[in-house]
Amino acid sequence: MGDAVSNRQNQVITLARLGDSEAETTGSDFSERWRRFLACLNMYQFSENFRFWAASESDTTAPEIPLEAVEAVSDDWLPVMEDVLPSLQPYVMELSAAALPLPAALPKVEYFNEQIDDDAFAELAWADCSPPVALLAGDQADFASAWQEQGWKVVTPDDLQAKGVAHLIDLIAKGISGA
Q: Whole-structure pTM over 0.70, yes or no?
């Protein structure tokens, strides 16, 4: 569920099946089941790991079901995973898998920016990037403009939801290479 909510559709596998035997298709409730099935298909159609088939197809051809092993968080990233907000943990898994450098301020994940305010901190920050990158969560998002005035690229959980974690990975990768 966390993958679906976190816009990590590549981690979600959706399988849909609608029975199409003679008894099922001639039943009085088939039209309503078909309408609901189509509504569900419409919701999942853009997920890259979405598969659907009719029951009679599986008698002759087994559907291809994409099952892949989930990568564990690397040992270097475990302290980050343990200390970051639970809502950001799915993103940390992606950052670890992308083999990016660890954020600044370890062993703690919070990066305080004393040039902004005593209370201003990023949940995760890559201060060595050019420009530096900060992930602001919760009430810290209110300080986004102050971070940006200091030359930081700011990402919030809303940005991750809308653009996906690839957006953050791209910012960090470009910041490392100086592009």
A: no
